Amino acid sequence: MPVFCSSCDTKRAVLKRPKTGHSLCKECFFGAFEEEVHQTIVSARLFNRGETVGIGASGGKDSTVLAHVMKVLNERYDYGLSLLLLSVDEGITGYRDDSLETVKRNQQQYDLPLKIVSYEELYGWTMDAIVKQVGLKNNCTFCGVFRRQALDRGAMMLKVDKICTGHNADDVAETVLMNVLRGDIARLRRCTAISTASEGDGVIPRCKPLKYAYEKEIVLYAYFKKLDYFSTECIYSPNAYRGHARTFLKDLEAVRPSAIMDVIHSGENLSVREGVRMPTQGTCARCGYISSQALCKACVLLEGLNRGLPRLGIGKHHRLHGKILAEQPLTELEERKLRAVDF
Ligand code: SF4
Ligand code: ZN
């Protein structure tokens, strides 16, 4: 007996929605998925008419679905937004160069302007070169810090009002778990936010329209829409800790699909006790980017790379910031500690 779509009752169901368990036909699934993203955008008031919105585009499934859905909804509901694609080239041979080819095709398919900013032009270092110096354990720390600033700088060049990224419900739930496991209260409070306000000069507000979309549904949407995306993993992707959080979450989801939403809601509702010390935001004395220390993380990481002291930005070396700024020499012991690449 064929199963009919539980929504339209006329067409055959081709899938069971991972989020709700409903059997749906293709068209009703597209409709339900798009409508939920629209509701997320409207209820959180993510955008205002007339804004220019940069879509962080990596060529992967999340950002490709995001670009596609944003374009569809902007036209269907007349949001009045100018959309463009914003990509970061980390300089990872055999990975990012290929995925950027996908972004370039998406640019043609969706007819959106595209801006690519590269680590090489912004920082003078590619990830390939960084991995040669720091090894494969802390590379994602460098990459994550640099990417955040790179997106902001690209967005500023294009005078973008907001950046939206393809973070999905699984990503957010994973991050909640990781911050709980690390006891990182400041990040825990921020990581579930659907949008961040402008935190000062040089930081552009960001939002996550796919915050409540399940990864499995994003994959189904991309598959049935035949979207053109790139699905290879980064060749430098060890990130073991996140991997464990991910596996753990997938195990929970297999037993109870609502686990993903439950973790997000728990993260949203955890409040921080009065009197817990939170870092205060200032600006980096060197580059002007927001920072809770004298120097921003990117400047410290770069200083470490350029001086052959790759551990400088890993762990807590805040007390050295004053010396770096004043260009004072480090002691032999300090240098020795920072040079060790046994990490
Ligand atoms: Fe960068 Fe790590 Fe992501 Fe690769 S896995 S792109 S190195 S953050
Ligand atoms: Zn800085």
TrEMBL record:
InterPro entries reported in the protein's UniProt record: CTU1-like_ATP-bd, CTU1_C, Ncs6/Tuc1/Ctu1, Rossmann-like_a/b/a_fold, TilS/TtcA_N, tRNA_thiolation_TtcA_Ctu1, UPF0021_CS
Broad class of where this protein is predominantly found: cytoplasm
Pathway: tRNA modification; 5-methoxycarbonylmethyl-2-thiouridine-tRNA biosynthesis
GO cellular component: cytoplasm
Gene Ontology process terms (BP): protein urmylation; tRNA thio-modification; tRNA wobble uridine modification
Top-level enzyme category: transferase
Entry keyword ATP-binding: yes
Enzyme Commission number(s): 2.7.7.-
Pfam families given in the database record: ATP_bind_3, zn-ribbon_14
Gene Ontology MF terms: nucleotidyltransferase activity; tRNA binding
Residues at which ATP binds: 56-58, 62, 88, 166, 171
Domain tRNA(Ile)-lysidine/2-thiocytidine synthase N-terminal: 53-233
Domain Cytoplasmic tRNA 2-thiolation protein 1 C-terminal as annotated: residue spans: 282-312
Locations listed in the record: Cytoplasm
Assigned keywords, A-Z: ATP-binding, Cytoplasm, Nucleotide-binding, RNA-binding, Transferase, tRNA processing, tRNA-binding
Family: Belongs to the TtcA family. CTU1/NCS6/ATPBD3 subfamily.
Record function comment: Plays a central role in 2-thiolation of mcm(5)S(2)U at tRNA wobble positions of tRNA(Lys), tRNA(Glu) and tRNA(Gln). Directly binds tRNAs and probably acts by catalyzing adenylation of tRNAs, an intermediate required for 2-thiolation. It is unclear whether it acts as a sulfurtransferase that transfers sulfur from thiocarboxylated URM1 onto the uridine of tRNAs at wobble position.
Name this protein carries in UniProt: Cytoplasmic tRNA 2-thiolation protein 1
Organism: Coilia grayii (Gray's grenadier anchovy)
